[in-house]
Each structure stands twice: as structure tokens, then as C-alpha cells.
Amino acid sequence: MHVVMFADQHLESLGGAQVSMRLQKRFLERAGHVVTVVAPRMHRPAPDDAAYIDLPSIPITPDREYALTWPGARTDRFVDAELGARLPVDVVHVQADFWGALIGHRYAARHGLPVVHTMHNRVDVGIEATAPFPALVLRVLNAWARRALRGAAATRGNAATPPSPGANPRDAARSARVAPAAPAAPDVRAGHATQGAGPADGWAYLRRFARLSRGITAPSGHFARRLEEHGVVPAEAGAGVDVIWNGIDDDILDAALASGAEARRPGPPRFVWLGRMSPEKRLLPFLEAVAASGIEAEVEIIGGGAQLRAAQKLVAERRPVASVVFSGRLSYAETLARLAAADAVVQTSIGFETQGMTVFEAASLGTPAVVSDPDIASELGAGVWTVPDATIPALAESLRRAADDIAAGTPVAVDPTIAERFRQSSRTAAMAAVYGRAVSAGR
What we know:
Elements: E1 2-7, H1 16-30, E2 34-40, E3 52-55, E4 58-59, E5 67-68, H2 73-84, E6 91-95, H3 99-111, E7 115-118, H4 123-130, H5 134-148, H6 150-156, H7 172-175, H8 190-194, H9 202-210, E8 215-218, H10 221-229, E9 241-243, H11 250-259, E10 270-274, H12 283-293, E11 298-302, H13 308-318, E12 323-328, H14 332-341, E13 344-347, H15 357-364, E14 369-371, H16 374-380, E15 384-386, H17 392-407, H18 418-421, H19 424-441
Parallel strand pairs: 1-2, 1-6, 2-3, 6-7, 7-8, 8-9, 10-11, 10-13, 11-12, 13-14, 14-15
Antiparallel strand pairs: 4-5
Helix pairs in contact: 1-19, 3-6, 4-5, 5-9, 12-13, 12-17
């Protein structure tokens, strides 16, 4: 098959979705498929790949890491010209939430192609965490999508009224038919999430894409359940959300497993925090908690973003007992090596992550996690020090508990089955099955 992926950001930019898409692309190619990736052109040096179609774009962040391409007739013509020079397309895989999603669905509608849409983002939570007037932003976002997708909905001919937010979702077994077995997690925020749901909220925005798609996938069971509870399901009768975890590189995992578990080198507990430095990731509360905890530990911060200077300033002012090192952006292989060598990875966002790849990557390598989000903790199932609430004292106490356990030589044990269930090859096979169903449904 020739799979065309559409993304909001270039695959060489920083972010968990981009890491996942790079892996998906490589393993689909390894399985004999052809992959083309359409995304905004980066505005800093980046590795090139013949499979990339770089859209004309403008930078939208001070570090020029992220860019925007406006969906419209000019972009449509550019995409058609670039893809017209390549092999015929079998399926469109939208892995975007904003301009990439609009561009991808417009392209699929123009050419009568099936769409599989992976929902990576809790749009409502992300906007609430980053925008000063989130309700207004969501109204504008819905109006933008309605206008940009008007032609796509008419072309598709399946703009039927989507299921209501209170519709009864598929049962759990059907929801996870291509997913690795994972512990069921109670939807601790479901009641809150449905309150106030209306025609201009985040769920309405996602439903608009769902009704233009033949398949919807989510990277975790908890997010799939939430999507279904809010009616974000394909327009196909009886269809629901397929749960397909983002995976870990088989080659790196095999090398790590072949080398065996290394003896822990002497020293204080070693914690790693990894991610984009933006408000929803809660790096600053984490550093406040490190200072408040008083733990004697080594803390490594991997990643970059707008809050880097604020984070460095906080550490300089609070002078925690723990040593805190900012390592910047590292390659995928280097990052996994740091996770394998750490005593624990710390995940601090709450409600925003639709999977939380970092803790699954760490668990695959045998490293446990301190986890703030109860959904992610439940999906991991084991190898977790949970944080009882969103306060800094609660996080500080969990860090103390983890540090004491590590120092005593009794850290929590990870689920040994995660390594096999998280392999990218298995996740790619599951996604290829979804592609096949989407293509067959249109014949």
C-alpha cells in the first residue's frame, strides 16, 4: 500500500507524536509499504528524507521548532502537484489535530480516498492549558474547521449527525480488538469531561473529523474510551475506536534485552524528566516538587521548549538538594539509553497525555515511573509510584517515596509483558489491519 500521512508538525521536530510517526514510517517501509509524509516545512536545519513533502509554512514559536501551513486552495494545489508525481495513494492516515488534519481530509475528499485518523491530542485540555481564553479559542477552532471542511463533508456524502456525547460506546473487548491487552482504567474524569459539552467544544471539533473517517485509532485504552463516550467514532455503522499503542523501536529494544539488565551503578537515585517544556507538561511544578521534597538525587531534564529559561531560573533560585541537569534535546537512541540507565522516569502532566509514551518506553526497558496522571498509571498497571493529586506537596511526597524505595534497593517492579506488547512491529501490523479494513470498505 501507499500510505500518505498528514501531520501538524514536521517529523523531525520535537514531540512524542513525531517520534511515533517516524517509527511507524520506518516499520511500514520495512513491511513493504510505501509511506509519504506531508507536514509544514521546518525553519531550522533538519534531516532530509525523500518521503517528506514539506509544505510552505511560517514559524509559530520563537525557537522556530514548530510551523503552520494554512489550509486552503493554494496548499491544496501544492499537495496535489507533489503527490501527483508519486505512486497512486491507497489510504490517507491523518495524525494531526489542526492544519495538518484539515489539509489531509481536504486532500482525501478531493480524491475519494479512505481516511484513517489517529487522535493524538486532548484538544480541550491542551487549549485550556495554553490559551488565555480557551472557550473562545474552541469556538474559533470549530468555526475554522466547519468552513475548511465544508467541501470535504459534501464530497464524502457522509455528513450524518454524529453520535451524541452520551451514546453508548462499544464494549471494551470490541474497542481493543487490535490492541495489546492492557488493564482497564476507570475514567476518573469522564463526568467532568462531559459537563458543558456542546457544539463548540473540543469533542465537537474531533467529531467533525471522525465522521469523515473510515477508521479512528487512539494510542491508549483510556483515551479510546473517552473518545467513544463523546461520540468521536467513525461514520461507518457499528464502528468504534481501535486502540493501537505507539511503540518502541524493535532494534533498540532487542539490543537492550540482549545485553541483559546492568547492575545499578552506585550513587543517589537517578530520575529523568523528558518532554516538551510547555505548561501542560508541568515541568515547573515538577522542579518545585523536587526542591520541596528535599531528596538527595540526580535529576536529568531532557527536551526543550519555551519554559527552559524559567525552569533554569527556578532551579537557580530554589537551590534543591538534588542536582538538576538540563541535557537539552537528545536523539531517540540516546534518550532511550538514558531511560534505561535511570532509576525512574517522572511523568507530570495530568489529563493532557493520550498515551504518555515515555513511561511505556521506560517500562519496556525495565525502568519504573512516578506518574501524576491516574489514567496513565492504570494503563501501565505495575511499576508505578502514583501521585495522589495535582498538588506540589503530593508530587514531592511521591518523589520521596520513590527515592527511599530506590535507595533501599526495593523499587517497584514493572510489568514484564509490556516490552513485547509495546514493540513497534506489532503496532505496525495492527495499524496495517486498520488500513486494510478502510480500503476494503470503499470497494
